[in-house]
Design brief:
Length: about 220
């Protein structure tokens, strides 16, 4: 019962991580730059994401421009696109596989098959967390390095946006869920290997039955 509840808790964490991963991939606020200027009424907030750049005005106007050219983008944005998409795909695979292999579900066949499915789903979650953590760390490093660069003007400097923090938290959820799934399956398999099921033998009963059968033959 404890392992089933622990797996269910890990599955909820994986769901939050997968949804957060998808949201971080699509959100345009990976980098944010607020330019107030001389008048607060004409304040502009510039946001840059993996797929589009958006500008929000204090008057309520909002405009976005898609990044059509892939080769013109910096290397860290291209890498972030690839790894975040892979993270979303792996997390989706992990959810499908662990749904079959969880102890609280009636899918997946016997206990051994369910354990293998849970372990495979946990590996998918761990890989999804790693692929989600790499672009967020790299993107944050680029933001901080350009922010501390004295040659870049203040108007061109950015700060990490909400999508970066969402990516960090989602990657943490996926890593925790993957570790829980893998460790629970490993402990169960290790316990079965150390303590094999006992086989009960009844030699005395078999001998008595054979002896009775022989006595009947001689009567």
């Amino acid at each position: 019962m404890a392992s089933a509840s622990l797996q269910f808790f890990a599955f909820i964490l994986a769901l939050f991580g997968a949804f957060g991963d998808i949201a971080a991939t699509l959100l345009p606020n990976w980098k944010v730059n607020a330019d107030v200027g001389s008048n607060i009424i004409t304040a502009i907030t510039q946001m840059q994401g993996l797929w589009m750049d958006c500008t929000w005005y204090s008057t309520g106007m909002f405009s976005c421009t898609l990044k059509y050219s892939i080769l013109s983008l910096p290397v860290y944005i291209q890498a972030a696109r690839t790894t975040m998409v892979l993270s979303c795909i792996l997390s989706a695979f992990g959810i499908c596989i662990t749904t079959v292999g969880m102890k609280c579900t009636k899918l997946g066949g016997d206990i051994g098959s369910k354990n293998h499915a849970c372990f495979a789903g946990g590996v998918c979650f761990i890989l999804a967390g790693i692929f989600g953590l790499i672009p967020t760390c790299w993107y944050t490093r680029e933001i901080i390095s350009s922010f501390l660069d004295q040659t870049i003007p203040e108007s061109s400097k950015h700060e990490p946006g909400g999508a970066v923090y969402t990516g960090f938290i989602s990657a943490g959820f996926l890593l925790i869920a993957g570790v829980i799934f893998c460790s629970s399956c490993f402990k169960r398999q290790q316990g079965a290997w150390i303590y094999p099921p006992k086989q009960h033998h009844f030699p005395s009963t078999e001998q008595e039955s054979n002896a009775g059968y022989n006595l009947k033959d001689y009567v």
